[in-house]
From TrEMBL:
The keyword Nuclease does not apply. This is 3'(2'),5'-bisphosphate nucleotidase CysQ. It comes from Sphingobium rhizovicinum. It is an enzyme of class 3 (hydrolase). Keywords: Hydrolase.
Length: 258
């Protein structure tokens, strides 16, 4: 099984497991998220250690380990991205399985188990991204839209599309449900690694909001911001973000070349 096949298979099976946990009817709304997270995490981590024993592993639901830092190949997983949406049986939650090689997001699969009966987007099977409409659409958090994103959307005349998980937002750009995903509210490597691998393979621009590259398997796994959009939009969006940072007192550095 190739790395790409493995990532997609694991993401899809974990999604089915999560649906079974939710459908069991045994957990309260408060307990469901934890039960789903832990169950899917056990499957993903045991499977990866069985079939890729020499690779490193980083999971949101496991204690971090120093051993991964010495590895060239490190699997980075998020068993349930969008726990609230998972519990509500919405479509905008995801399972992330990705492989970073020498810090780069090399392989990724993002499963959307409640999206049209189950969708898995893969870095090795890119599809054509639908053309942009006349009015641009930007996906933002359902509960805490980032100020930078809202400000950029206003300047672009873009419509805001509230959505749950980071993976669902990134995949929305690929699926033609949105055109821009701009985030600055704080994330970790497992939130973006697999989605970025998939989005980049589909020809989209992926970077930090100052244009810097997204690097993974770092000692500090906090990776607070990102931009995913069509490549022809990236320069203008990065400029607007930088302008907003200057207006706010220089909190955001000037954009780097995409």
């Amino acid at each position: 099984m190739t790395d790409a096949d493995l990532a997609a298979h694991l993401a899809q099976v974990a999604g089915r497991i999560l649906q079974e946990v939710r459908g069991s009817g045994l957990f309260s709304a408060r307990a469901l998220g934890k039960a789903g997270d832990q169950t899917a995490n056990q499957f993903l981590c045991h499977a990866l250690r069985e079939v890729r024993p020499d690779d490193g592993l980083l999971s949101e639901e496991e204690k971090d380990n120093e051993a991964r830092l010495a590895k060239s190949r490190v699997w980075i997983v998020d068993p349930v991205d969008g726990t609230r949406e998972y519990g509500e049986a919405r479509a905008d939650w995801a399972v992330h399985v990705g492989l970073a090689i020498d810090g780069q997001p090399a392989i990724g699969a993002v499963a959307l188990p409640d999206h049209y009966g189950g969708t898995v987007l893969r870095s090795d099977q890119p599809r054509a991204v639908p053309p942009a409409p006349e009015t641009l659409r930007m996906v933002v958090s359902r509960t805490r839209p980032a100020k930078e994103a809202v400000a950029v959307a206003e300047k672009l005349g873009a419509e805001l599309v509230p959505m749950g998980s980071a993976g669902a937002k990134a995949m929305a750009v690929i699926l033609g449900q949105a055109d821009i995903y701009l985030h600055s509210g704080g994330q970790y490597e497992w939130d973006s690694m697999a989605p970025v691998a998939v989005a980049a393979a589909h020809g989209l621009h992926c970077s930090r909001i100052d244009g810097a590259p997204l690097l993974y398997n770092q000692r500090d796994v906090y990776l607070p911001d990102l931009l995913i959009c069509r490549k022809d939009m990236a320069g203008r969006i990065l400029e607007l973000v930088a302008e907003g940072g200057k207006e706010a007192g220089g909190r955001i550095p000037a954009p780097r070349t995409p």
